[in-house]
Amino acid sequence: MKKVLHITLLFLGFIVQAQSPKLNVKGKDSSLVRMNQLKVTVKVVGNIAYTTSEMHFFNGTNRQMEAELLFPLPEGVSVSRYAIDINGKMREAVPVNKNKGKQVFEAIEHRRVDPGLLEKVEGNNFRTRIYPLLPNKERIVIIGYEQELFSYDATHLAYQMLSNYPSKLDVFEVNISVLGANSQPSVIDNDGVLALENNNQMYQTSIKKENYLPKNKLLITIPIRAEIPNVVVQNVDNQYYFYANTILDNPKILKKNPNSIGLIWDISLSCKSRNIKKELLLLDAYLKKIKNVDVTLYFAGYNFEKKNVYSIKNGNWSDLKSILESTIYDGGTRFSKIKLPSHDEYLFFTDGLSSLSSNNISTTKKPIYTITSVVSADYAFLNYNAIKTGGNFINLNQLNEEDALDKLLFQRLKFLGVKENYLVTEMYPMVGTPVSGSFSVSGISLKANNEIVLLFGYDDQPILEKKITIDGLNQSTSEVSIEKLWAQKKIANLEIQYKLNADEIENLGKRFGIVTQNTSLIVLENLHDYIQYDIVPPAELRPEFDRLMKQQIANAKAKKYSNWENVASYYEQLKTWWDKNTKYN
Questions:
Q1: Which helix (H) or strand (E) holds 323?
Q2: Mapping DSSP to helix (H, G, I), strand (E, B) and coil, where does residue 330 land?
């Protein structure tokens, strides 16, 4: 039976969001090329959401056009599915080394139907070219990704889809299913609360609208039991990949107030899109809490410049605030120029993108708090520098003001691994990762039933334990790929030190079809292209590919055998001639 829940509209600003795609079109009449249909499927299992966006792009001009799609995703989320229509039929992409993908793309892009290539670019953006867009025709692109849901409050997880678009869509469709919820979830869009239908503990609803302009609000809240960790399991070759989420209710311990702060402000052009309001609100709240402190302002751009020292009294920082509000953003960034003078702690407001030098900053024994409000930030760099110095990474795209302030005020609780258990391996995130509220961990259990005790502490001494129970039968799911989610957590861990782990990241990206810094997803026009460039095709082409490759191998062996036969025959003829001992007059 369908029910409509009565619910108070909730504050939406801090939920993890999938950002809206952006279409860049080249040439005259570019405004006539647009997204005309968007069909989104959201499937939630436990605290995992798998989202598939099917985007239709229509060319309203009378000539062939070209477009570029930029698809931003939240921190720690990567594309795991990409498909594009080839000759009127959707074709799934396959993983390929990023450099090889570019080479193949450039080699055959002169064709009327070019390959589809999805790459990860700066920040957590994913880019693909759409060509050709024929006159008065449409092309279809599908992008899919898995993500963790974070705590909305003590008893709910939440998912929000951000959907701001410049013009109306001919068709807007969203299909939502939530599996295994303790009670009925809530779904809110711009028109209010939606009805859900309960079908054997699967709650479902759909939205379909025509000539519609989506607006920045589609929220799903899922009831949970905070005292019981949520666990899902998948058996792969008798290894049990698990994914667990638990709520941490740990005591907050205030850290000692600093006497001196080094405030590093990124003034590069890439930071022009920052949410200055959010950043200043966080600074305002923090400085009013600690009240009296010396703040030294540094500008980080092409050079690293000391600007001034501000003595904050009773939280009054108006002079410093006015300087930040009037900052001009221009040029590139050279983090190699950052030499950290002595301070009790550092607040580094940046997108983490060093366009003119390597992403390295000088070492320090004092904590660096890396803070960003830029969607296209280098989250791995920001996280790594916070972890290694004992600070915190504060992502203002994800956190509300209260939670962000907590990361500055309180000692950070850390994940310290597990109690001795030889039947658990490859657990992520890494030991030492700061945690709070909702915490997710993924790993491999070598037996179907297992008990794992997670350890947490402020230093290296555990003060908090959480037990999770692995049940390979009752917690099993085929609705989402737990193995792939585990791989994404491992990749996120390895990317913290990308240069050291580039090869392993590439291997994981290829194995699981995940887009990384050095792995792309590619779609080719025909089977010949896959054979020519030695790329294993998607499942629909695999039987014919295997048959032709087997035939090629057989032909090569036959040719080699034939060559050896010819050599043997020639040898016998030469030997016969030699043995005759023919004499010439």
A1: helix 318-325
A2: coil
The answer to whether 500 and 384 are in contact (CB under 8 A) is no
What CA–CA distance (Å, rounded) separates 315 from 321? 12
User: What is the residue type of 242?
Assistant: F
Nearest to 321 by CA among 290, 276, 259: 276
Report which residue type is found at 168: K
Q: Which residue(s) pair with 187 in the sheet?
A: 220
Which residues, including other chains, have CB under 8 Å from residue 488's CB and lie 6 or more apart? 76, 77, 78, 80, 146, 512, 514
Residue 363 has pLDDT above 90, yes or no: no
Residue 190: name the closest of 166, 167, 219 by CA: 219
- Residues 65 and 132: beta-carbon distance below 8 Å: yes
For tokens 């801090």, the residue is 14
| Strand-strand pairing, 192-193 and 48-59 | unpaired
305-353 pLDDT, tens per residue? 999 999 999 999 999 999 999 999 999 999 989 999 999 999 999 999 8
**pLDDT exceeds 90 at position 138:** yes
Residue 471 pairs with which residues in a beta bridge? 449
Amino acid at site 585: N
Angle, helices 276-290 vs 318-325, to 10°: value is: 170
How many other CB atoms are found less than 10 A from the CB of residue 21? 19
Q: Give dist(CA 434, CA 149) in Å, integer.
A: 17
Over residues 432-437, the mean pLDDT reads 83
- Antiparallel, parallel or unpaired: β 239-248 and 437-445: antiparallel
* 112-122 confidence digits (pLDDT tens): 556 899 999 87
Euclidean distance between CA atoms 382 and 379, whole angstroms? 5
Tell me the C-alpha to C-alpha distance, in Å, between residue 23 and each of 127, 165, 169, 211: 10, 10, 14, 19
Provide the 3-class DSSP secondary structure of residue 94.
Answer: strand
| Strand-pair category, 368-372 with 345-349 | parallel
- d(C-alpha 398, C-alpha 179), whole Å: 25
Encoded amino acid at 546, one letter: D
**Is there a contact between 359 and 378 (Cβ–Cβ < 8 Å)?**
yes
How many CA atoms lie less than 13 Å away from 300 in the CB half-sphere? 30
Q: Which residue has the higher pLDDT, 508 or 217?
A: 508
Whether residue 542 is predicted with pLDDT greater than 70 in this model: the reply is yes
- Give every CB contact of residue 171 below 8 A, 6+ residues apart in sequence: 36, 37, 38, 39, 56, 208, 209, 210
* Euclidean distance between CA atoms 507 and 521, whole angstroms: 13
Alpha helices, H only, 360-514: 379-389, 401-409, 482-494, 498-512
b/e code 301-314 from CB counts within 10 Å (16+ = b): bbebeeeeebebee
- Give the phi and the psi of residue 404 in degrees, each rounded to 5: -65, -40
Query: Is residue 358 exposed (0-12), middle (13-18) or buried (19+ Cβ within 10 Å)?
Result: exposed
- Answer whether 355's CB lies under 8 Å from 335's CB: no
Query: What are 211-257's pLDDT values in tens digits?
Result: 988 776 678 888 877 666 788 999 999 999 999 988 887 778 899 99
Q: Answer with the residue of higher pLDDT: 275 or 479.
A: 275
∠ Cα 165 171 174 (to 5°): 85
Specify the 3-state DSSP secondary structure of 432: coil
